[in-house]
Amino acid sequence: MATFLTMYKDKNDAQNNANALPLPAPSYSSAKQTASTMVNSGRSSDGVVYAQRVLDRDLVKIEIAWKYLTASQWSAILSKILTGSENFYVWIRYFDMQAGKFKCRQFYPGDRTATPFRLNQTTKEVMSWLDCTVNFIDTGAEELY
Description:
By secondary structure, the chain is mainly beta. It is 12% helix and 52% strand. The chain has a 7-stranded antiparallel β-sheet. A hairpin with a 6-residue loop joins β8 and β9. The chain is globular. The model has no long low-confidence stretch (mean pLDDT 89).
């Protein structure tokens, strides 16, 4: 299955393409990418805005939503987040909309949400989930490539 997002638990795994978790393909999900320019800004006494760029690059936010995931798919994604370096940072290889090529950077996860869908009638365990979402926010650290 083709994917445009691959998650790694730490920088070493990302550099070596080891222990990769390809996230489900866009045809089964939706993804929104936002680029934010970090600035230090204010207004003069005349009300004119002045701003200075803080970073030499924009920060990226990736919002991902899946209509349906099996319990094992959703668990694999959440487990990779929880076992990331320093408890929750992960490295993601993604297609950058501004550069028009793949990049790999460190992100931290925002809120994760999902709605239970199908339950095992005997054990009452959740077998699948609906409307699974997670946001990944660029930490501003160096990129690998």
